[in-house]
Design brief:
Elements lengths: L2 E8 L1 H9 L4 H11 L3 E7 L6 E6 L3 H13 L3 E9 L2 H11 L18
Antiparallel strand pairs: 1-3, 1-4, 2-3
């Protein structure tokens, strides 16, 4: 199954409620993830623009989008970013495939700063 990185920022109201009633929300989101056929592999609270980083395994992009939509619709989340992840083997497969697609950059052969 594909893996995803979910980066979540709480609203100010959510932080205030968590301060008033501290609880492990990670366990609470595990059930809906599993109901969609996924698995919560790991999750961490973080400093910076995102408050929670979670790695899930979901059956497909639609399921990953569904949990992100559910998080966003709940009202406690200010921002959700979901990134599909690849294993090293998948990245190597993509690199090999990229080399066979025939794409030619407009700046090919004009230095190291080649771009689209």
């Amino acid at each position: 199954m594909p893996h995803y990185c979910h980066q979540v920022s709480y609203t100010k109201e959510a932080w205030a409620r968590l301060m008033a009633d501290p609880q492990d929300r990670l366990e609470i989101v595990r059930l809906p993830i599993e109901k969609l056929g996924g698995k919560l592999h790991s999750a961490f609270f973080a400093f910076g623009p995102f408050d929670v980083i979670a790695i899930t395994e979901m059956p497909d992009n639609i399921s990953a989008a569904a949990i992100a939509i559910a998080f966003a619709a709940g009202g406690a989340v200010a921002h959700v970013q979901t990134t599909p992840l690849m294993t090293a083997a998948q990245a190597i497969e993509a690199l090999k495939k990229a080399g066979t697609c025939g794409y030619k950059s407009i700046v090919a052969g004009h230095g190291a700063a080649a771009g689209a």
